[in-house]
Amino acid sequence: MIDAAPPTDDDRALAQAVLAGRPGAFERLVRTYQGLCWHIIERMVRHPDDTRELCQETFLRVHQCLHQYRGESALKSWIGQVAYSVGKRHLERRRIPIADAIGADEDGLAPAYAVSDGVDLQAEHADDEITLLLHAAIDALPPLQRTVLTLYHLEELPIADIARITGLAEGTIKSHLFRSRRQLRETLETGYGVAA
Question: Each residue of 8-30: pLDDT tens digit?
Fold first, then answer.
């Protein structure tokens, strides 16, 4: 099990500065975490205008609820959790399913797969055309799988942080990562003739 990233002194100091109303503190928080917020929400909703609006809503909620940040995890994880809940609520309002049902094994339990299957998709598909095909295949994934894949591979968050952000069990995160990679590999191999 990978432990969640611990909070840093900088996390606590930034949160305290924002709560104290110090000039420029909230702007610094937004600049620091706007990329994370955009990655999470954009991967979930796939619409630039909605993404912009939901990112603004996320930082409004962060500003309103920062007093609830206890410093038990990294500020990045806490803000990611707020962004995820805003994106999830948006999808629920629009009745868009966030994930495909996870297949169960013969015991009726969702399978837990190892996260690392030895495939580095980005390195293997460095060619521009193949990279475009890969991004198209990622875009075709359900919102939850796109988001988990983005958090793990682009934001390089540990599984424990992704679990904290999404509220899902670590085994479920691993299962989504496994299924996403398998689906991407199949899509690239069958649909585009690319060996993944």
Answer: 788 889 999 999 999 999 999 99
pLDDT in the model for residue 125: 37
Q: How confident is the model at residue 1 (pLDDT cuts 50, 70, 90)?
A: very low
Is residue 132 one of the residues assigned to a domain?
yes
Looking at the domain assignment, is residue 108 inside a domain? no
Distance CA 174, CA 154 (A): 16
Q: Is the pTM of this model over 0.70?
A: no
Give the CATH number of the domain where residue 135 resides. 1.10.10.10
Q: Are residues 144 and 186 in the same domain?
A: yes
Q: Which two tokens stand for residue 61?
A: 């909620």
- Residue 18 sits in a domain whose CATH number is 1.10.1740.10
User: Do 160 and 170 form a contact (C-beta atoms < 8 A)?
Assistant: yes
| Structural domain contains residue 100 | no
User: Given the structure tokens 């990679």, which residue do they identify?
Assistant: 181
Q: Find out whether 61 and 86 touch, Cβ atoms under 8 Å.
A: yes
Quote the distance between the C-alpha of residue 82 and its chain's center.
11
Q: How do the residues of the chain divide into helix, strand and coil, expressed in percent and rounded to 5?
A: 65, 0, 35
Kindly tell me the sign of the dihedral angle through the C-alpha atoms of 166, 167, 170, 174.
negative
Using the predicted structure, report yes or no on whether residue 192 has a pLDDT greater than 50.
Answer: yes
**CA separation for the pair 33, 133 (Å, rounded):** 28
Same domain, 21 and 87: yes
Length of the chain: 196
